[in-house]
């Protein structure tokens, strides 16, 4: 295994993680964090970088599919988990790409409705998914480098021309707010999904590679990709914090990113960034819909009809949700993420741990505890938190919407102490 192979795999992983949604979250996080930008960064990178990279390390060990992540709980649970993850993917992050495209590239230039944008956008998605065009693969090789170059120029101006004066933070709990905002990147869920894609790609290109060699390759590439994500996220958060007094406090995420690019490099940079982000959005949407359709096709004996029907449903959902603004889609996504993200995190961690500490019994107990103690956070996220205060006041960390953490850790310890 040479350095070039590791570099190519690392860049592929980075590109799979690095979507348009990842771009619009960090700047506003920094914009509102003020002097506590570094604490927000630690929380954000914990859930948006460290946990996802652990997911890649788990894939390096399993060398299977997303189904393998939860099968120790039970095959039925794993299947339900897969269906939920794919359903969330086509209902939330996929439509969000259309919304980002409309707000950053279409609305500033043409006075058209978001509904028209969504219809045209997912009409094209349908065409590309059904025909499985290779054009996106070619475009994708140039998108991420292009976006990174523009971002480097923007961050460079911010770092070298602005004074490092930060205002007051708008967050009462910067660290936990950073963690919860990291949920919105969908990167932990993405790790469970894209890790399988990487495994398949490596198997196709290097059929004779041994298990240990593949594990080492994926692990090293994962850490390099994680380092890249950490640097970009940190740079964007600092950049947002440096512009804390330059925009309306209620500015949207997409408007803030566009505004920062205009203030640093002018309208040309803002337009270029909008085009690149829009193309990245489109490739992401095609990837999500294709992956979901492939999964359903596999569950129905490789039926092409199931593939087409799934693609149509995914595109209709995209049109319905994609006409809403990014902020609304992020708000709608929160309840689903408050429930599925904790489960995904514990599955990732358990799959990374040595076998002796992560038996099927441990998987079952910890996942059940996580599900039960995620319910109050889910209820709170849909606005019914006051009704369950008599319960949540006795759950540690529930005030930070992380009431599942301590119970999962306690059950993990107990399950390992109680031997069969």
Automatic annotation (TrEMBL):
What keywords appear on the UniProt entry?
Amino-acid transport, Cell membrane, Membrane, Transmembrane, Transmembrane helix, Transport
Name of the protein this chain belongs to = Branched-chain amino acid transport system II carrier protein
Q: Does the keyword Lipid metabolism apply?
A: no
Give the residue spans that cross the bilayer.
36-60, 72-92, 112-130, 142-162, 182-202, 223-244, 264-293, 305-322, 328-353, 365-385, 397-418
Q: Which domain of life is it from?
A: Bacteria
**Chief site of localization:** membrane
N-terminal signal peptide: none
Q: How does it sit in the membrane?
A: Multi-pass membrane protein
């Amino acid at each position: 295994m040479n350095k070039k192979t590791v570099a190519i795999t690392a860049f592929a992983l980075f590109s799979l993680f690095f979507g348009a949604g990842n771009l619009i979250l960090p700047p506003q996080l920094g914009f509102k964090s003020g002097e506590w930008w570094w604490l927000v960064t630690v929380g954000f990178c914990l859930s948006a970088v460290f946990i996802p990279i652990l997911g890649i390390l788990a894939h390096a060990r399993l060398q299977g599919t997303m189904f393998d992540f939860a099968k120790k709980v039970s095959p039925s649970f794993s299947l339900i988990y897969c269906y939920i993850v794919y359903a969330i993917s086509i209902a939330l992050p996929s439509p969000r790409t259309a919304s980002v495209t409309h707000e950053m590239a279409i609305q500033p230039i043409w006075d058209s409705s978001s509904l028209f944008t969504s219809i045209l956008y997912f009409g094209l998605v349908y065409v590309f998914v059904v025909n499985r065009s290779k054009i996106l693969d070619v475009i994708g090789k140039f998108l991420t480098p292009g976006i990174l170059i523009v971002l480097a120029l923007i961050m460079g101006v911010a770092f070298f021309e602005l004074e490092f004066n930060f205002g007051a933070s708008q967050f009462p709990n910067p660290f936990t707010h950073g963690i919860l905002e990291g949920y919105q990147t969908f990167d932990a869920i993405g790790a469970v999904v894209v890790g399988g894609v990487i495994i398949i790609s490596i198997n196709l290109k290097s059929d004779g590679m041994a298990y240990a060699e593949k594990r080492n390759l994926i692990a090293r590439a994962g850490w390099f990709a994680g380092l890249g994500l950490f640097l970009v996220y940190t740079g964007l958060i600092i950049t947002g914090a440096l512009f804390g007094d330059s925009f309306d406090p209620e500015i949207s995420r997409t408007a803030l990113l566009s505004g920062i690019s205009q203030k640093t490099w002018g309208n040309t940079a803002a337009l270029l960034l909008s085009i690149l982000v829009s193309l990245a959005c489109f490739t992401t949407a095609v990837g999500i819909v294709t992956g979901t359709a492939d999964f359903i096709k596999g569950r129905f004996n490789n039926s092409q009809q199931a593939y087409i029907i799934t693609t149509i449903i995914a595109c209709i959902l995209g049109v319905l949700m994609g006409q809403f603004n990014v902020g609304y889609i992020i708000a709608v996504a929160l309840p689903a993420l408050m429930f599925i993200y904790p489960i995904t995190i514990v599955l990732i961690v358990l799959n990374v741990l040595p076998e002796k500490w992560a038996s099927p019994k441990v998987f079952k107990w910890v996942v059940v505890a996580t599900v039960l103690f995620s319910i109050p956070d889910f209820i709170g996220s849909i606005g019914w938190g006051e009704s369950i205060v008599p319960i949540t006041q006795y759950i540690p960390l529930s005030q930070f919407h992380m009431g599942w953490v301590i119970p999962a850790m306690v059950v993990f310890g107990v399950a390992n102490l109680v031997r069969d």
